[in-house]
Amino acid sequence: MTEGRARRLSAFDVVVVASGVLLFLLAAQSAPAAVAAYRADGIPGTFTATGLECVRHPGHEQCTWLGRFVSADGRVRRTGVGFYGSDRGMFTAGESTRAYDIGRSGHVYGPGGSNEWVVVALMGLTGAALALWPVLRGRRRAPEERAPEPPAPE
Q1: What is the Cβ-side half-sphere exposure of residue 28, based on CA atoms within 13 angstroms?
Q2: In the chain, which residues have pLDDT < 70?
Q3: Cβ(129)–Cβ(90) below 8 Å
Q4: Which keywords appear in this protein's UniProt record, sorted alphabetically (predicted)?
Q5: Using CA atoms in the order 103, 105, 106, 110, what is the torsion angle rounded to 10 degrees?
Q6: Of 49, 63, 90, 148, which one has the greatest count of Cβ atoms within 10 A?
């Protein structure tokens, strides 16, 4: 490689960079909701458990309590929502607890919030690293050595 000439990107580099940009954009899109979930920053109200929904995998079972959410002022009423992070032993049918609706469809959060931000942050960092792949890889490589010049004729 001669000095002053930029290294050409391979097809692999283009795919890696495009994947990184996509991953970073997905993380950026999810970041506001993940932070709101972490802080339990939403409409306060009450979640009332109505039923348990479980999915069984070989050697593993994942359960979520479904129910109703009613905001403290009674303006927001949602049915069929899951309580994020719940498991089989968390509630009994008819039991209620404080909850927050951060605007995500499908579930509400408890007062303790959630740690979804960790996954979103890792997605963002991974996406940024992949998007910068050619630059980061170029800095790691040692400069190419020049071939020795032939001796001058005498």
Answers
A1: 8
A2: 1-7, 138-148, 154
A3: no
A4: Membrane, Signal, Transmembrane, Transmembrane helix
A5: -10
A6: 49
Residue 1 has a pLDDT of 47
d(CA 125, CA 35): 16
Distance CA 123, CA 34 (A): 12
Q: Looking at residue 101, what DSSP letter applies?
A: E
pLDDT, one tens digit per residue, over 115-144 is 889 999 999 999 999 999 888 776 555 555
107-116 tens-digit pLDDT: 999 988 888 8
Whether the CB-CB separation of 129 and 16 falls below 8 Å is answered with no
- Give the pLDDT of residue 144: 56
User: Exposure string (b/e) for 98-107, b if CB count within 10 Å is 16 or more?
Assistant: ebbbbebeeb
d(CA 132, CA 139): 11
- The count of residues in the chain is 154
Residue ranges covered by each domain of the chain: 10-40+114-140, 43-112
Q: Are 83 and 107 in contact (CB under 8 A)?
A: yes
Predicted pLDDT of residue 139: 58
